[in-house]
Amino acid sequence: MVGGFGKMAIDALFPRFCLSCKREGQIFCLACASNWIAQSEPFACPFCGIRGSARACLSCREGTYLDGLVSYAPYGNPIVREAIGHWKYDGDRSVESTLRQWIEQSRDRLHIPLENFVVTHVPIHASRKRMRGFDQAEVLSGWVGEMFEMPVETLLVRSHKTKPQAKMQHEKRRVGTLDGIFEIHPNALELPTHILLCDDVFTSGATMDAAAKCLKDAGVEEVWGLVVARGGKD
Ligand SMILES: [Zn+2]
Ligand SMILES: [Zn+2]
């Protein structure tokens, strides 16, 4: 953990540059943060990408568990990808206000009737959370709960370690191969019927679908996903 003087020294050695205009200072300078809007993705089936609805399409519904997915920015956009990378892999929390702003700006993308839903997150492994100091999906679920005035609960634990997504993108991954990496949190005594599952990025969907399967196997009726960015088809 680096704080106080140590952090100042690191900031001086490794100055930050605005991801958008490249000016030295912050990871997103004030001018860029207030002007830049992440282009929203069209509504599409989370698994095959067929456009028209955020709900999983009829043919993908067989064999998958996630009912639908809302994303706020395309992961293909280099600014979006870099911002999330700084947050997740470098642990730079100065980018959080910008990410939160992106979601706030396009809050109307969430079309499900939220009254019934409880917000939760796709957890990282406890040891990874200790190393990073925070769980980015948990942070996101907190924002979503505040923004949409929804209850937030921790319902899942990650039981096995998996490699970070970015390192896995060249390996063959399919929906269903991560079965069993999640368990219901021991403190979650009574599960809600409708869940909004938050994560930072959705690529193949294998991780989020494994989390949705765990919840549905435990009796949850409907599970929607919410991510900052979606990677599209692998
Ligand atoms: Zn800038
Ligand atoms: Zn589909």
From TrEMBL:
SUPFAM superfamilies: PRTase-like. It comes from the Bacteria. Belongs to the ComF/GntX family. This is Phosphoribosyltransferase domain-containing protein. The lineage of its organism: Bacteria, Candidatus Uhriibacteriota.
